Amino acid sequence: MQPRYDLHFRIVIVMVAVKLATSLPERLLIGALVEKEYEGHWRAIEKAVENLNLNLFQNMVVIVDRDTIQPQDSFQAQKKVCRMSQTGIAAMFGPVSSLAAGHVQSICNAFEIPHLQWRWDARDNRDYFSINLYPHYLTLSKAYKDAIQHWGWDQFTILYENNDGLTRLQEVLKTSDEIKTPQITVRKLEAISNSDYVSVLKDLKRRGEFRFIIDCDLRSITKILHAALKIKMISELFHYFFITLDLGLLDLEDYRYGSANITAYRLIDPARDKVVNVKTDWLRHAKKGHESPLMGYAEIEGNSSHTLLTETALAYDAYELFAYALMAYSKVQEVATMNQPCDKMYTWRHGNSLLNYMKSSAIEGLSGLIKYDGGERMDFVLDLLSLTPKGLEVVGKWDRKHRLNITRENVTPTDTKITNKKLIVTTYIKADIGIGDLTINLVREQAVDFTKPFLTLGITILFKKPAPKALNLFSFLSPLSFDVWVYMIAAYLCVSFMLFVIARFSPYEWCNPHPCNPDTDEVENQFSVMNSLWFTIGSLMQQGCEIAPRALSTRLVAGMWWFFTLIMISSYTANLAAFLTVERMVSDINSADDLAKQSKIKYGLYGGGATQEFFEKNQLPLYIGMWEYMNRTKEHNFVKSLDEAIQKVKKGDYAYITESTTAEFVIHRHCDLMKVGGLLDSKGYGFATPTGSPWREDLTEEILRLKENQFIDQLYTRWWTKEMEAANCDTEKSASASSANELGVENVGGVFVVLMGGVVVGFFVSLCEFIWKARKNAKKDKQTLCSEMSEEFRFAVHCFGSKKTKKKQDDEITDNGLQFMPLTGSRQHVHSKEVYA
To answer: Boundaries of each Ionotropic glutamate receptor C-terminal domain copy (predicted)?
Structure first.
C-alpha cells in the first residue's frame, strides 16, 4: 500500500505546484460599459481578449460582461456597474462620456476595482483606482505650444467648441509671457451649420486673421474646411492647426492642392508593425462577415470601415495593459475575484496591488510605449502631420524629453533657374538675409522685412515682332490712300473741264493767233479740251507749258489749281521718303486693352507665380476679364517654364505676360521678340530679412548708395544688354540708325514700270496717228494704203533728216504745240455770225 500513498502524495504536490505557478482561476470576469456610438471600442477589447486568451493565458479564460448605456446617462451606468460588481469582476473598462465615467469611477474607487479608461480627462487629482491611457492633457498642451513657438506665430486665433478646448490649450494661452506677447483672438464655435461657419471665417478673414488653432469635434473639421474652401481661405496664406489626434482618418482630397497649411498631431502610427498586423487581422475577420473594431463615427465625412480611431486603439491597449499586469501579479499572488453588491461596502483585496502593477508596467501597444509617471501617461511620441499634394506627411516628431524635432529634406544645390516667383511661407528658417528675385508685396511684408527695392519692374507683354510688310511694286502710290488718288483724278478732270468752259465764256481768252496780221478776221481760244488737260497735268507734275491764261477768271482757276498741287505734291513728297526708306512693321496688338478685346491671339502666363497673383486679386474690369480668359484656358495657355513660353511666342499668335525684367532679358537675346505696351503695374525686387533685423537698414543704405553711383545700372546693362551680342540685335539696330536705308529696285521699281508703260503707250499712239494720216493721204493722193505707209515709213526711219516737203493736205495741221487732229472748234470769224462748234 505504501507505493499507492506515495503516488497520491506526488499527484497532490504537482497539482499544488501548478496551482501556485499560475495563481489564476480558470475563469475571470471583467466588466465593460460602452456607448452605442463607440461600438468599435468594445470590438477592440473583444479582439484583445480573444488574442490574449490564446497567446498569454494558458489555463484561464477571460470573459467580458458587456453592457451598453446612453451617453451621459449616469443613472444607468451606476445601475449596471452594480450588477457587474455583484457577479465579481477583476476590472472595469469604460465608458467614454465624462458624466457616466465619473460615476463609474466613484464606484470602482469604493470597491477598489481597477478602472481603465482611454478618454481625454482634465482632472489633475484623479481617483486612486483609475488609470487612463489617453496622454495627459498638460503634456499635450506643451506639444501644441512647442509647435506654435516653432512657427513663430505672433498673431493667431483660437476657435473652440466647448470649455474643454481652452483647457487643452492652457500652455498655448500662457505663451504671452514668453514670446513677444502674441496677439491671440479667442472665439467660441457653437453648434452651427455650414453657412454659419462661412460667416465666422469671413469675419476673421476681414479682420486679417490667417492662422487658426481649432479645437472641435472630428465631425466638424471637414465642415470647417469646406466652408473655408468656399470663401477661398484654402491657400498658402492660411494655416489651420487642429487639436485632434485623428486628422489622418479624414478624407482631405479636396484640400491637398490648395497649398494651405493644415497640420495636426497624431498618436497612432499606421506604419508601426504591430498596428499593421492587428489591422490586417481585423480586416481578415471583417471579410468573413464579422463585426470589426475598425469602425468609428459613422457621421464622419469620408470615414470608412477601415478607420482605426485613436480611442479604439487605446481601448485595445487598455486590455493588453491589464492582461500583462495581471499575468505578472499572478506569479507572486493567487488572484480570485469576489462578489461585491453595491449595498455592502466590500473592497477587493487584490485591486490595489493589481493597479500598482499596471502603473509600473511598460509595454509596447498600438499607441507606442505605454509607461506611467506618477499615475499619468506622459512618455509618448507624437507625429506632426502636414497636408501636402501627396497627402498628410510627417514633418516632425514630439516627445517630452526632446520636444519638437522638425524633419527637413536634404536639398542638393543645382543650377536650375528660379521659375516660381511666389514666396510661400510654410516653415520659418532662421536666416539673416533672403536673396533672390523676391517681389515686394503686402503679404510677404507681413512675414519678413524687405529692404528698399534695388530694381524696379512691372508686368508687361512679350510678343513676336511683326514681319516687315512685303514691298509692293507700286509702293510709290502708298503715301496717299486709294481714295485720295481717286479724288485727285476727279479734281484733275473737273478743273480741266471748268478751265475749258470758263475760257470759252471769257472774251479775253479769244485772241488773234497772228499778231503780225492785225487785220485778220479770225480769233482763237488756246484752251481747247486737249490743251486744258495738258495745262492742268503740267501744273500737277510741276512742269511748264507754252499755254498761259490771259483772263482774270482763268487765272483765278489756274492759281487755285497751282495752290492745290503745291500742297498735294509737298505732302506726297514728304510721305514718300518715309514709305520708301522705313520698313513699317505694324503689330496686331499695342497694349493690354488691345489684347483683351481680340480673340485671335491667345495669351497666358507662368502658373503659380506673382504675375498670376496680380491678376487673381486685381479688381479692374480689364484685368478681371483677362484673368477669367486665362484661367478658363490655362491648360493650353499657361506655361511651365520660360523656354516653353519663348517657343510659344515665336510660333506666333501667342502673347506671354511676365515681369518686365524677364521680358527685357529675353528680347535682348531673341531679336524676333519685343515688348508690347507699357507696364501693367509697378513693383520692385528687394532683399528679405527677419522682422526687426538690424541688417535691413544697413542693406537699404548700401542699395541707395549703389543706385546713386549708377553701379546697379551698370550691372543691369552688363547682364541684360551686353550679353546679347551673340544675337547681333544691337548690330542690326545701329546699322539702321547710323545711315539711311538704300533704295532698291523693290522700292522704286514701280516708277520704272510706269515710265515703260507710258513709253509703250506713246509708241502705239504714234502708230495709230501714223496709220490714220497715211490712210487720209492715200485717199486724197489716190494711192494704196500700203504704198503711202511705205513712203512715210522710209522717211521716218531715215534718222538724219528732220525736214520734208509739205503736202497740200498738211495745211490742216495746226501748230499749237500738239501734233494732233485739226482743232477747228477754237477759231471764230470776227464780225461773223458763223461760229465753228
So the answer is: 391-722
User: Comparing C-alpha atoms, which of 235, 234, 192 is closest to residue 216?
Assistant: 192
Classify residue 373 by its DSSP letter. E
Q: ∠ CA 661-663-664 to the nearest 5 degrees?
A: 65
Whether 668 shows a pLDDT value over 60: the answer reads: yes
Annotated binding site for L-glutamate: which residue ranges? 439, 444, 611, 659
Query: What's the pLDDT at 758?
Result: 63
CATH class belonging to 137-266+380-406: alpha beta
Question: Angle, nearest 10°, between helix axes 552-581 and 482-505?
Answer: 160
What is the amino acid identity at position 61?
V
Contact by Cβ (8 Å): 205, 185: no
Residue, of 571 and 321, whose pLDDT is higher: 321
Asked whether the beta carbons of 703 and 454 are under 8 A apart, the reply is: yes
CATH fold of 475-512+523-581: Helix Hairpins (1.10.287)
Domain assignments of the chain as residue spans, ordered by start: 26-130+312-374, 137-266+380-406, 475-512+523-581
Phi, psi of 501 (to 5 degrees): -70, -45
Residues contributing to the annotated binding site:
439, 444, 611, 659
Cell 469646406 belongs to residue = 226
pLDDT digits (tens, 9 = 90+) for 721-730: 765 554 556 5
% of the chain exceeding 90 in pLDDT: 17
Does 71 score more than 90 pLDDT? no
Per-residue H/E/C for 112-153? CCCEEECCCCCCCCCCCCEEECCCCHHHHHHHHHHHHHHHCC
Architecture of domain 26-130+312-374: 3-Layer(aba) Sandwich (3.40)
Of the candidates 654, 729, 479, 462, which has an alpha carbon nearest to the alpha carbon of residue 584?
479
Q: How crowded is the C-beta side of 606, counted as CA atoms within 13 Å?
A: 23
pLDDT above 80: residue 565: yes
